Amino acid sequence: MKVNLRKLGIFLALTAVLLLGMFLIAVPYIDIGLAALVGGQEKLEAFPDISEIPESVAEDARAMAMELYGDSQDKYDEYVKQLLSAYVEVKDQDFVVIFNPGGWGTKVLEKSPTWCEICQGIETELDGLGYSSLILDYRRTAESMRGLTRELVELFSVYPSKAENLAGRVEFLTRNVPDLKVIVAGDSNGAVISDTVMDILYDNPRVYSIQTGTPFWHKRTTVERTLVLDTNGRIPDAFSQGNIPAMLITSLKALFGLSLTEDEEAGRIFYFVRAPGHDYNWQYPDVNLKIIGFLEENFNADRQISHN
């Protein structure tokens, strides 16, 4: 018994050292993220045409980058380039929807099939209301050990630096593109950063948010101009409700190859944890009707007023 306890103590000590080392590596690491066009382009325009950009806009981009990344020339340059590239893409649009994926934050929209359909539905509805729109991915995490560890640190501290990064992008675009409206969209863990961005930009009336499947531990800070879905209308979202027994039982059933219902099969967290109801599909009436209602309530009157 003494030998076993000694081995257990060594194992726990080594685990603690490993976790501490990962934490210390992650804390100083800053992931700048990547805003990208949906539809196969890896990045926004690699080097924006400066002739299309007013000097005041370029100066604003440099000031924003200096505020956030003034101590890193590489990150400063990349952030300026991304801001100006985004400006070139959205300057003639009425709306831009920025999607924050769930999980580790590395997915593109095309690999999030349910939200891909939701974004298509949002575009169709906005088009029906007479607006032009553009969808951007916001991949907040680099696919590396440091990047993933940093994501964990950010998640449990409510995304202080990543939310500031995204809020800076949104503030820059709304400041420099007259009448542009931004919808910050987020699924699961991505809903946390979306909520934090809305809290930072609470006094910007041109910023809105649509969030699905917020983790149960996150206390929402902002309700203004925000639609939050924590159920798909079929069954309650176990992840949003904090129904740990349901997640545990369903995950064990999947592990041992037992048959799952359609709702149990669809909901997943971090690839391997099952969460019944953590599945927001545009085909579900409670999902599409609430999103359409949110868009019409907030933007249909605006279009009617502009036409009068």
Order of neighbouring strands in the sheet with most strands: 1-3-2-4-5-6
The top level CATH class name of the largest domain:
Alpha Beta
Shape: globular
Structural class: alpha/beta
Number of helices: 11
Largest sheet: 6 strands, mixed
Helical proportion, percent range: 40-55%
Number of domains: 2
User: What share of residues are in beta strands?
Assistant: 5-15%
User: What's the CATH architecture of the largest domain?
Assistant: 3-Layer(aba) Sandwich
Question: From N to C, what is the helix and strand string?
Answer: HEHHEHEHHEHEEHHHEEH
Stretches where pLDDT falls below 50 for ≥5 residues? 13-29
**CATH domain topology of the largest domain:** Rossmann fold
Integer-rounded radius of gyration:
21 Å
What is the number of E strands? Answer: 8
End-to-end Cα distance = 83 Å
Average pLDDT value?
82
